[in-house]
Specification:
Elements lengths: L6 H14 L4 E5 L9 H6 L5 E2 L4 H13 L3 E7 H7 L1 H10 L4 E6 L17 H7 L4 E3 L4 H13 L4 E4 L21 E4 L4 E5 L3 H14 L4 E5 L2 E3 L3 H8 L5 E8 L4 H11 L6 E6 L10 H7 L4 H11 L1
Parallel strand pairs: 1-2, 1-3, 3-4, 4-6, 5-6, 8-9, 8-11, 11-12
Antiparallel strand pairs: 5-10, 7-9
Helix pairs in contact: 1-7, 3-5, 8-12
């Protein structure tokens, strides 16, 4: 874990580098400077950050106004408050008006653990997929995170980036190149496919190794790009496999599991599918991540057990 890095720190460095390269980027926060780990940016560019206070609707509206004025506006605050409190402003000011705003949902999923459902964002992918005109990404490692942010800053239009709140180790080597829409196969296998997004990619990588030790070859598929998503490439990756398990720190409805189910169903492919995450109609447990994932059945051990049953 020595190479683990907080994705918010990766984000801040990307902002600093963008401004230094001449991009007129302005971060907007809602009294969330510590959550965003943005102190190094403030130190380097005093006066460039806008802090609206605990007023998420104002944060998003202000970002949209800055974007209309020609800035690259980026919002940085906790995902649950961004998604729930500023829902209408995201829908209207950002998506409907196609403003050049990049929304960063920090500490997404159940990153806040024991702080419970008020602080969990297990519906953000579902909400954002319901909005038109916004690209949606969920990086699984520091390198992928940096490449997604660099792309998003230069892309003209609304973007939502779901960032995990814990330090994540590197999964990709220096040759990795993020491509919007691309589906990333991290391990080959045809016995079963394990599909994940964000931090849960680490769980399926671990689960695949456990399965290999038991003689089962699992394909590991990472989906960092929820929208756009190359459905044909996803289908091609899954078709040879006997079964599919999706894993996400999100409700099983509306996120990655739904995306995979839609792709399989619309192609008329009858591969058995099991969606793991926070079960239908439930909140995430108020607990640290390890216990929470074990409790809801999507830590590496539980994934491996289910895969053996499905295999």
């Amino acid at each position: 874990m020595s190479n683990a890095e907080h994705l918010a720190s990766v984000m801040v460095q990307a902002f600093i580098d963008a401004v230094e390269s001449g991009i007129d980027l302005v971060p907007v926060v809602a009294d969330s400077t510590s959550t965003a780990k943005i102190a190094p940016f403030i130190k380097q560019f005093p006066g460039r950050l806008v802090n609206v206070g605990i007023a998420e609707q104002s944060m998003v509206g202000t970002a949209a106004g800055l974007a209309l004025g020609g800035k690259v506006a980026v919002t940085c605050n906790a995902a649950p408050f961004l998604i729930s409190r500023a829902n209408e402003q995201i829908k209207v000011d950002v998506c409907y008006n196609n403003t050049n705003v990049k929304l960063f949902g920090l500490n997404a999923g159940a990153s806040y653990g024991p702080l419970a459902s008020t602080h969990h964002a297990i519906d953000d992918l579902a909400v954002m997929r319901g909005f038109g005109n916004i690209q949606i990404f969920a990086p699984s490692s520091p390198r992928e995170c940096r490449q997604i942010i660099d792309y998003a800053i230069r892309y003209q239009g609304p973007v939502y980036i779901r960032l995990d709140g814990k330090a994540l180790p590197e999964l990709h080597d220096e040759n990795y190149q993020f491509v919007p829409g691309a589906v990333v196969t991290l391990r080959e296998g045809e016995d079963i496919a394990l599909v994940a997004t964000g931090s849960t990619v680490h769980e399926v990588v671990d689960a695949a190794q456990r399965l290999a030790d038991a003689g089962i070859q699992a394909k590991v598929v990472s989906v960092p790009s929820i929208r756009p998503c190359d459905a044909a490439a996803l289908l091609l990756a899954l078709k040879p496999c006997k079964a599919v398990i999706t894993v996400e720190e999100h409700n099983v409805n509306g996120g990655l599991g739904s995306l995979v189910a839609e792709v399989l169903a619309e192609a008329g492919v009858g591969i058995p599918l099991k969606r793991l995450g926070i079960p239908d109609g439930e909140y995430a447990a108020a607990a640290d991540r390890g216990w929470l994932r074990q409790h809801h059945g999507f830590d590496a051990a539980a994934i491996a057990v289910l895969a053996q049953k499905m295999h």
